[in-house]
Design a protein that fits this description.
about 525 residues; about 15% strand
C-alpha cells in the first residue's frame, strides 16, 4: 500500500490501514509531514509556533480522533465574530458570541430593531439542524442526492442551501448589509465567486463551513495545526506504517490491479495507491491529460504582535474582538465590489479579510517569555484575490495587496497595526504574507487552491459517482471507491486528499474514506 503525500489526510489513511494490518508506505515530498496543517517558527529567533497555512478546525470528526487514539484537543471559542461598523457617524460593531443577551443587544444597536437578530436565530437554527443530519454522513458511504435530501428532511432548508444561489437566500432572509456580509463570508473562503453564482460554488463552500462537528463551530487546535499532524504521524508509525520524507513521487504506473510508484527512493510495487494530492497532480504522475486547475483566491498573513491594537470602537475589548473572527471590509456590497474588481483583473480597492488571534484561546503556541510580556499572534485570511492577479509581477503585487489589506484594518483601529508588530532577531517586523502562487510553490497546490479543486456537494447523483465525475471515471456506484467518493479513472488508485468528494478543509475525512474503500467497508 503506497500513499502519496504525508499531509493530514494521507496520515489518517495510513493510520487506519496500518491498524488493519496492511503494509503501508507514505512518501512525502517535503522534509516533514503535515502539508498545509503545520506549526512552524515563521520568524527568526522568535519562540512562536504559528499555524502557518491552515489554522482552525471544524470538519475533523471526533470519530477519527477516537478511532486512532489521537492525543489532540481543540478549544471552543466563546466569541464567534466581531464586525466593525460605523452607524450614525460613530464607530461601533456587530458582536456575536455564546452570550445571547450581548449578541441580541449588539444586533439591536447596529440594526435598530430585533428583526435581524430573530432572522439570524432562525437561519442558524436551520443550518444547525442540517449540520446535525449531514455531518455524520461524511464518514459513511456516499449517499445519493435523494437519500441526503431525505436525511435533511426539510424542503425549505434544502432549497436554501442546495438549490438556490446563496445570495438569493441571504437577501431573502436578512435586510442589513453588514449582517448579510457576515453570513456570506462563509461561502467565499478560498472560493472566488459572486453571491449569485449560478453554479452554486458559494453554497458548497458555505455548507462545509456550517456543518462541521454537527454544530458548525470552528475550534482552535491546542498547540497549533501541527499538533494534529504530529499526532497522526505518531499514530501511523505506532501502527506500523513507514513514512519517508524528502521523497517526491515522480510517477505512477497502473494496470488497475497492481501499480508501481516511482520516487526519490526508487520504484516500489503496490496493490493500491492512495493519492493525497490534487487531481491535476495525480494526472501528471499518471502521464494523463491534466484538467485545468481551479485557482485559489486567498491571501494568508501571519503576524506576531507585542500587544493587541486598540479599536476605534471603544465599546469592545480587543481581546473579545480578536478572539473570534474579526471581519474587515466584508459588508455584502463590499464583497460584491471586491469580486467585480478582481474579476476585471484588478486588486480590490478595499480587500476583504478575516482576522483572529490564536494565542488568546491557546497561549501554548508562544514561549513563556512572550506570554509573560503580553505578545499575541494574529492571523489574517483575505478573500477575492485570485491567482491570476499575481501572474505578471508576483512579489510587487503581493506587497501592494498586503498594504491595501492592512490599510483596511487600520481604518477600524485606533492606532496603526505596525506600531504593535514585534520584530525578529534581525530587527524585521514579524509579518509574512502568502498568495495563491506562494501556496502553489510551497505546498504543491495547483493554482494555490486550498480545496484542490471546486468543492462538490456531499452526495452522488443517482447511479453516479458523485457531485462531479471523478477524473474520467465512468459513472457507476458498484465499487467501494465510488461508494466512498474517492474513485479515480483507475480501480486501484484512489484520492485520499481534498480533491475527493467530501474533501476540503482540515478534516481527515477523505483519508478515512479512502481507507474504508480499500478495506472494503460498506
Amino acid at each position: 500500500m503506497a500513499i502519496v503525500g504525508g499531509g493530514h489526510n494521507g496520515l489518517v489513511a495510513a493510520a487506519y490501514l496500518a491498524r488493519a494490518g496492511r503494509r503501508v508506505l507514505v512518501l512525502e515530498r517535503l522534509g516533514h509531514t503535515g502539508g498545509a496543517a503545520v506549526s512552524e517558527r515563521a520568524f527568526r529567533g522568535v519562540d512562536a509556533r504559528l499555524s502557518r497555512y491552515s489554522y482552525l478546525v471544524s470538519l475533523l470528526p471526533s470519530k477519527i480522533v477516537d478511532d486512532l487514539g489521537l492525543r489532540f484537543a481543540v478549544r471552543r471559542r466563546s466569541v464567534s465574530s466581531y464586525t466593525p461598523a460605523v452607524r450614525g457617524g460613530r464607530p461601533t460593531g456587530l458582536y456575536v458570541s455564546t452570550d445571547e443577551a450581548a449578541t441580541r443587544a449588539s444586533f439591536v444597536r447596529i440594526t435598530g430593531s430585533d428583526r435581524e437578530y430573530a432572522a439570524w436565530r432562525r437561519f442558524y437554527g436551520m443550518t444547525r439542524q442540517v449540520a446535525e443530519r449531514v455531518f455524520p454522513t461524511l464518514t459513511e458511504p456516499l449517499p445519493t442526492r435523494a437519500a441526503l435530501r431525505a436525511r435533511v428532511g426539510d424542503d425549505a432548508a434544502w432549497e436554501a442551501l442546495f438549490e438556490r444561489p446563496l445570495g438569493e437566500t441571504v437577501e431573502s432572509v436578512f435586510d442589513d448589509d453588514l449582517v448579510r456580509g457576515v453570513v456570506l463570508t462563509d461561502g467565499l473562503i478560498g472560493t472566488f465567486a459572486r453571491a449569485h453564482d449560478p453554479g452554486l460554488a458559494p453554497n458548497r463552500c458555505f455548507l462545509y463551513h456550517v456543518i462541521g462537528g454537527g454544530t458548525g463551530d470552528w475550534d482552535v487546535p491546542i498547540g497549533g495545526m501541527g499538533a494534529l499532524t504530529d499526532a497522526l504521524a505518531d499514530a501511523a508509525r505506532k501502527a506500523g506504517a513507514e513514512i519517508v520524507t524528502d521523497s517526491p513521487v515522480t510517477g505512477i504506473a497502473t494496470d488497475g490491479r497492481t501499480a508501481e510508484v516511482t520516487s526519490a527512493q526508487g520504484t516500489v510495487g503496490a496493490r493500491h495507491v492512495l493519492v493525497n494530492a490534487a487531481p491535476q497532480v495525480l494526472a501528471g504522475l499518471l502521464g494523463a491529460p491534466s484538467p485545468e486547475p481551479v485557482e485559489g483566491a486567498q491571501l494568508k498573513v501571519n503576524m506576531l504582535l507585542t500587544r493587541l491594537p486598540r479599536l476605534r470602537d471603544t465599546g469592545v475589548d480587543p481581546r473579545l474582538a480578536f478572539s473570534g473572527t474579526c471581519h474587515v471590509a466584508e459588508g455584502y456590497q463590499q464583497l460584491e465590489t471586491a469580486y467585480r474588481q478582481a474579476a476585471a483583473g484588478e486588486l480590490p480597492a478595499a480587500p476583504p479579510s478575516e482576522i483572529y488571534c490564536h494565542s488568546l484561546t491557546d497561549p501554548s503556541v508562544l514561549g513563556s517569555d512572550l506570554v509573560r510580556q503580553g505578545y499575541q499572534t494574529l492571523t489574517l485570511f483575505g478573500l477575492h484575490t485570485p491567482a491570476r492577479l499575481f501572474a505578471d509581477d508576483h512579489d510587487a503585487t503581493r506587497e501592494r495587496l498586503l498594504a491595501a489589506t492592512l490599510a483596511q484594518l487600520d481604518a477600524v483601529l485606533a492606532e496603526p497595526l505596525t506600531d504593535c508588530l514585534a520584530t525578529d532577531a534581525d530587527g524585521r517586523p514579524c509579518i509574512e504574507a502568502r498568495s495563491p502562487l506562494d501556496l502553489e510553490r510551497d505546498l504543491g497546490l495547483p493554482g494555490g487552491n486550498i480545496f484542490h479543486r471546486e468543492l462538490v456537494f456531499p452526495y452522488r447523483a443517482e447511479g453516479g459517482t458523485g457531485g462531479a465525475a471523478e477524473d474520467g471515471a465512468e459513472n457507476g456506484a458498484d465499487d467501494a471507491a465510488a461508494r466512498w467518493g474517492v474513485r479515480t479513472a483507475h480501480a486501484n488508485v484512489l484520492l485520499c486528499g481534498a480533491g475527493a468528494i467530501r474533501g476540503g478543509g482540515v478534516s481527515g475525512i477523505p483519508g478515512h474514506n479512502a481507507a474504508m474503500a480499500v478495506l472494503g467497508r460498506w
